[in-house]
């Protein structure tokens, strides 16, 4: 067998549509012998690394999302010696994890006894614990922290109340509106800002943030900002309808935190009950996640991560909570319509093109809002029909008949008698949806083909398959927003 | 596409979990079904397809290996080859997909597709249960007609022992 990417990769190369968006996904048809191995299991069938990728360092680390391709193998193998371990590494192995390199870490992709589909279903029916310690946890401090983040992101950081979070993105300083990385920004008490960025973008983000902080501090003598990373800390996501019950059972009652009042996008500090009457230190618990389910993300000092995770597993018991890996994390987030940087977003994508206009508050939608690319983004926010610049491409959801469409598959106009087939864009993520039993995908299409219900074709293995533009999330989100 | 959900249900209790828990007995079971008993020549490709050739060298059966099926995980979709199509060795003739990955099925030798295993359209999970079973109810992909070119192509393929060593080598690399 060969990676099925080969066909789509080749057809992508044949495509005449050469916008910068597609350079990231069109890939060289190099040797495509399948490597069926532990590495192969990790593969979420994505195209080979672009030969001239717009993103350099970080993409090499995303071996999880690599195809089953021998040409990539040596990249992962040679880097495996340098891979870092999260605090939960041994616990993963003890639970039968299959480990793969991802974002520079040994990460679990799935566990013995549960296939990706089963783990996915378990998360939607009960709850799962995901180790996301590979992600980069950053703390911004200093009198200029909020204003600094308002320069590099389109978010209203100044007005963010303590213990509230917002989805955001780091924007390129060149003013193009392109996204450096997507992130969650949380205001902590005491003027601190907690910013979580992608593991696969670590090196790029570090360079970007160091440069931007230096530039800011040089310009703002009285509004300095500094940043530190929580090196080695654990970050654990508890996701699913049973997540609240599981956490409640582990929560120290004297903490005074009422989970019923900890709504989506809110956070709190609380201690967890550990084995042997011990208590954890106060942990930052944020309600939210990357599955579309109710859930929490818990930031934990390195030396407590194992104890806290075991406490959560014990609090729920195997009927309510299981470990889940990157495999189901990917299919869950796709059903929830959430972007994966390096696939659905890249340095050339603007928030408007990515369908993320909603992360920009009303008061920051003008050209003089003061963040990088504000003029470009403000113009894009107004459609052409209303006198604005609009956008040429838009991220959409697709439901595809017949075969699953994967990253790189071409989206074309519906094949009809006497009509020329036009390339509209490409799929950026796709898989068979375990919840819906349909093939779902997201990708970019030309403006005008982005409305829900628009009929298009997606080319899989050289054949057009009927697809319909579909509103996301594909599976309704179940965030806790109160009753 | 209801078949995806159906398949997930089918394979949930028995399929992959059994495969993962007792890989050794599974391999033996698959062998007992078909390979050694009735077919003198089962050959494997480096891309993890197998082909059985009949004693008269005129017909064959194609499938994917136990090793490949296990590496793919729960198969939720199989794109079957086109009946009647004449293909060269190495041609992509179909695909096997799990939630997380997709892999082409390539023709192990030059041949003509005479019949495809329609069972896999409704029960793609059969690939995980009995990938090397060429009988009714098995996970075979296609039956083919073979000519002299095809028989010659066969020489380049691995026998059972060589394939076992090949996959062991692949596993070691990781």
From TrEMBL, chain A:
<keyword id="KW-0809">Transit peptide</keyword>
<dbReference type="GO" id="GO:0005739">
    <property type="term" value="C:mitochondrion"/>
</dbReference>
<dbReference type="GO" id="GO:0008483">
    <property type="term" value="F:transaminase activity"/>
</dbReference>
<keyword id="KW-0032">Aminotransferase</keyword>
<feature type="domain" description="Aminomethyltransferase C-terminal">
    <location>
        <begin position="393"/>
        <end position="475"/>
    </location>
</feature>
<comment type="subunit">
    <text>The glycine cleavage system is composed of four proteins: P, T, L and H.</text>
</comment>
<dbReference type="GO" id="GO:0004047">
    <property type="term" value="F:aminomethyltransferase activity"/>
</dbReference>
<dbReference type="InterPro" id="IPR028896">
    <property type="entry name" value="GcvT/YgfZ/DmdA"/>
</dbReference>
<dbReference type="InterPro" id="IPR027266">
    <property type="entry name" value="TrmE/GcvT-like"/>
</dbReference>
<keyword id="KW-0808">Transferase</keyword>
<dbReference type="GO" id="GO:0006546">
    <property type="term" value="P:glycine catabolic process"/>
</dbReference>
<feature type="region of interest" description="Disordered">
    <location>
        <begin position="40"/>
        <end position="59"/>
    </location>
</feature>
<dbReference type="InterPro" id="IPR013977">
    <property type="entry name" value="GcvT_C"/>
</dbReference>
<feature type="binding site">
    <location>
        <position position="297"/>
    </location>
    <ligand>
        <name>substrate</name>
    </ligand>
</feature>
<dbReference type="Pfam" id="PF08669">
    <property type="entry name" value="GCV_T_C"/>
</dbReference>
<dbReference type="InterPro" id="IPR006223">
    <property type="entry name" value="GcvT"/>
</dbReference>
<keyword id="KW-0496">Mitochondrion</keyword>
<comment type="similarity">
    <text>Belongs to the GcvT family.</text>
</comment>
<dbReference type="GO" id="GO:0005960">
    <property type="term" value="C:glycine cleavage complex"/>
</dbReference>
<feature type="domain" description="GCVT N-terminal">
    <location>
        <begin position="88"/>
        <end position="362"/>
    </location>
</feature>
<dbReference type="InterPro" id="IPR029043">
    <property type="entry name" value="GcvT/YgfZ_C"/>
</dbReference>
<dbReference type="Pfam" id="PF01571">
    <property type="entry name" value="GCV_T"/>
</dbReference>
UniProtKB/TrEMBL annotation, chain B:
<dbReference type="GO" id="GO:0005960">
    <property type="term" value="C:glycine cleavage complex"/>
</dbReference>
<keyword id="KW-0496">Mitochondrion</keyword>
<feature type="modified residue" description="N6-lipoyllysine">
    <location>
        <position position="100"/>
    </location>
</feature>
<dbReference type="GO" id="GO:0005739">
    <property type="term" value="C:mitochondrion"/>
</dbReference>
<protein>
    <recommendedName>
        <fullName>Glycine cleavage system H protein</fullName>
    </recommendedName>
</protein>
<comment type="function">
    <text>The H protein shuttles the methylamine group of glycine from the P protein to the T protein.</text>
</comment>
<comment type="subunit">
    <text>The glycine cleavage system is composed of four proteins: P, T, L and H.</text>
</comment>
<dbReference type="InterPro" id="IPR033753">
    <property type="entry name" value="GCV_H/Fam206"/>
</dbReference>
<dbReference type="InterPro" id="IPR002930">
    <property type="entry name" value="GCV_H"/>
</dbReference>
<dbReference type="InterPro" id="IPR011053">
    <property type="entry name" value="Single_hybrid_motif"/>
</dbReference>
<dbReference type="GO" id="GO:0009249">
    <property type="term" value="P:protein lipoylation"/>
</dbReference>
<feature type="domain" description="Lipoyl-binding">
    <location>
        <begin position="59"/>
        <end position="145"/>
    </location>
</feature>
<keyword id="KW-0809">Transit peptide</keyword>
<dbReference type="InterPro" id="IPR003016">
    <property type="entry name" value="2-oxoA_DH_lipoyl-BS"/>
</dbReference>
<dbReference type="GO" id="GO:0019464">
    <property type="term" value="P:glycine decarboxylation via glycine cleavage system"/>
</dbReference>
<comment type="similarity">
    <text>Belongs to the GcvH family.</text>
</comment>
<dbReference type="Pfam" id="PF01597">
    <property type="entry name" value="GCV_H"/>
</dbReference>
<keyword id="KW-0450">Lipoyl</keyword>
<dbReference type="InterPro" id="IPR000089">
    <property type="entry name" value="Biotin_lipoyl"/>
</dbReference>
<dbReference type="InterPro" id="IPR017453">
    <property type="entry name" value="GCV_H_sub"/>
</dbReference>
């Amino acid at each position: 067998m060969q990676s099925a990417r080969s066909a789509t990769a080749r057809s992508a190369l044949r495509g005449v549509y050469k916008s910068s968006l597609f350079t990231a996904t069109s890939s060289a048809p190099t040797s495509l012998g399948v490597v069926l191995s532990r590495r192969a299991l990790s593969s979420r069938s994505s195209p080979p690394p672009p030969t001239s990728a717009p993103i350099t360092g970080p993409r090499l680390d995303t071996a999880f999302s690599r195809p089953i391709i021998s040409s990539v193998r040596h990249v992962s193998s040679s880097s495996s010696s340098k891979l870092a371990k999260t605090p939960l590494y041994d616990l993963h192995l003890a639970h039968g994890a299959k480990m793969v390199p991802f974002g520079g870490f040994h990460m679990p992709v799935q566990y013995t006894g549960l296939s990706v589909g089963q783990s996915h279903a378990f998360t939607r029916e009960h709850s799962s614990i995901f180790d996301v310690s590979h992600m980069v946890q950053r703390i911004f401090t200093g009198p200029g922290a909020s204003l600094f983040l308002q320069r590099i992101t389109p978010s209203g950081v100044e007005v963010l109340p303590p213990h509230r979070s917002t989805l955001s993105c780091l924007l390129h300083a060149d003013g193009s509106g392109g996204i450096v990385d997507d992130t969650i920004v949380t205001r902590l008490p005491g003027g601190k800002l907690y910013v979580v960025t992608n593991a696969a973008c670590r090196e790029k983000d570090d360079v970007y943030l160091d440069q931007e902080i230096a530039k800011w501090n040089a310009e703002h003598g009285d509004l300095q900002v500094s940043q530190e990373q929580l090196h080695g800390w654990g970050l654990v996501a508890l996701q699913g309808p049973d997540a609240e019950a599981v956490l409640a059972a582990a929560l120290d009652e004297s903490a005074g935190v009422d989970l019923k009042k900890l709504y989506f996008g809110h956070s709190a500090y609380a201690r967890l009950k550990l084995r042997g009457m011990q208590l954890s230190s106060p942990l930052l618990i944020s309600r939210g996640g990357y599955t579309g389910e109710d859930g929490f993300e818990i930031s934990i000092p390195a030396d407590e991560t194992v104890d806290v995770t075991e406490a959560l597993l014990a609090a729920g018991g195997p009927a309510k909570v299981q470990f889940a890996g990157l495999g189901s994390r990917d299919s869950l987030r796709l059903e929830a319509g959430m972007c994966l940087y390096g696939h659905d977003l890249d340095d050339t994508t603007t928030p408007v093109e990515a369908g993320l206009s909603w992360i920009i508050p009303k008061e920051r939608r003008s050209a003089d809002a003061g963040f990088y690319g504000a003029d470009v983004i403000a113009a894009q926010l107004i459609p052409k029909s209303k006198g604005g610049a609009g956008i040429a491409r838009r991220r959409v959801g697709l439901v595809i008949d017949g075969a699953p469409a994967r990253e790189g598959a071409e989206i074309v106009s519906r094949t009809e008698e006497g009509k020329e087939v036009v390339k509209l864009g490409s799929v950026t993520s796709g898989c068979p949806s375990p919840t819906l039993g349909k093939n779902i995908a997201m990708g970019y299409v030309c403006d005008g083909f982005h409305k829900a219900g628009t009929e298009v074709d997606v080319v899989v293995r050289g054949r057009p398959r009927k697809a319909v533009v579909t509103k996301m999330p594909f599976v309704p989100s179940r965030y806790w927003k109160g009753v | 596409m209801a078949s995806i959900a159906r398949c997930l249900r089918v394979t949930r209790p028995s399929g992959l979990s059994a495969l993962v828990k007792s890989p050794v007995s599974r391999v033996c079971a698959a062998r007992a079904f078909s390979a050694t008993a009735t077919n003198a020549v089962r050959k494997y490709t480096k891309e993890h397809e197998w082909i059985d050739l009949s004693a008269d060298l005129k017909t064959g059966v194609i499938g994917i290996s136990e090793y490949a099926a296990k590496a793919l995980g729960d198969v939720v979709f199989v794109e079957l080859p086109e009946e009647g199509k004449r293909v060269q060795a190495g041609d992509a003739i179909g695909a096997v997909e799990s939630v997380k990955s997709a892999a082409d099925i390539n023709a192990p030798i030059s041949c003509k597709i005479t019949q495809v295993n329609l069972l896999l359209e409704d029960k793609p999970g059969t690939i995980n249960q009995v990938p090397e079973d060429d009988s009714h109810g098995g996970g075979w992909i296609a039956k083919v007609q073979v000519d002299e070119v095809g028989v010659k192509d066969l020489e380049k393929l691995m026998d059972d022992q060589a394939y076992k060593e090949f996959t062991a080598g692949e596993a070691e690399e990781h």
